[in-house]
Amino acid sequence: MVFDEFLKHYAAIPVGLYVINFIFIFAVIFFERKSSSAALAWIMVLAFIPIVGFVFYLLLNQNLSRMKINRLYDDEYDAFERLLNDQIDDLDGGTAVLENPAAEAKKDLLKLNQVYGGSVYTDGNEVELITDGSVLFDRMLEDISRAKRSINVEYFIIKNDVIGKKLIKALTDKASQGVKVKLLIDTQGSRMIGNRATREFREAGGKVGYFFPPRLYKFGLKVGLNLNYRNHRKIVVIDDEIAYTGGYNIGKEYCNLVPRFGHWRDSHIRVRGEAVKELQGRFILDWRFTTKEKMVIPTEIDRSNKPGTKGVQIVSCGPEAPHQEIKRAYMKMITSAKKYVYIQSPYFVPDRSIIESCKMAAQSGVDVRVMIPCKPDHIFVYWATYSFAGELIKAGCRVFIYDGGFLHAKTVVCDDEVSSVGSCNFDIRSFKLNFETNAFVYDKGFAKTMKAAFLNDMAEGHELTEAEYENRSIWIKFKESISMLLTDIL
To answer: What is the pTM of this model?
Structure first.
């Protein structure tokens, strides 16, 4: 009798869930503007794991196109548009003064980043490449200790470990000295940095912003409803004079203190000059969206402040707009390369446009090399990466496995002229879902430094040959096949 009553009241629940599940399948097919492969991947998930897939769909498939994340104030917009349009007109009219010869040689990429990426070109910058996490952390703490006016910090991951605590302590010390310090972190990536971890920092006058703040809490951990959209940027701006950006996060593994990963190989840059203002503007837009504080983006640039000779464009992308600005710039670098293009990425799971760009370059006689890690930190992503590597090898590209630890760098360098360093991986997540920022550096000397770093990494690894790839085990082939089915939603 009790069981009959249970069935009477609760039997309709799974039926209702299945009905809702198929409504979502219908929505994926007819209403969501997705690529066919992404739509099919979601349909497969919803059909084969209906209840779990339904939850994943709610958490991972929100539309951000109507969110005003990059909104400029009217005077900021007018000043920015005037500067950008003047640069484009000068480039089109042949009156642009490009002080760095590499910028002149790659002005087609420069214009693409202006027109499609909305990126102002800056000249006279000093750019230093840093490829060791402990060196980067020490340099950053040293610069922070000398700050007089302001420190703005934006990170995807800050761990609540000895390294993360050391950074927060340094920021707390500066806030207590009257320096204006702002800390912006991603809710998911830095989920262990909550009110307790930042209490002394806030009491000292520091401000904290959580990008996509959580709406649910469980067991004391943050669980955000915008789980699939992550602020993957890494930006530090000190006194409007020094900036850092690149691939490193803050934590023990990034300083080579976690044996499981070994040496953490990444790339970051330290910048001085006009490009600092562009990184500052990116931080302010993210801070305003997150905290609603009305910070003002500086519209005047001190053209006399030229500590170096390098040209730089700061290019950002995110899911709030249909453009994929950094991906388009990557494609341009690959397809316009004349001699070589070297790529490093821990997650190489791109769409067909990137794959075909690499194939076309290699088949045109360009030396195309792609370097990936020897070990995974995301299993499905790694085996999808391995599958794409095999496809590139067959088309004439060369693929290298970095055996010296974990490769996390997101870099491109071509023709001893232009380089890209930033947070954007060669995968669909970075191109479409994450908020990313890369620096495109126009300079022969810097490009040669990037090339040398790539060649040094080759000495720490081995080339994946076609014979080795073809002889992989059935188990690896199975893992590749499963991972490739999920590439559009990984």
So the answer is: 0.86
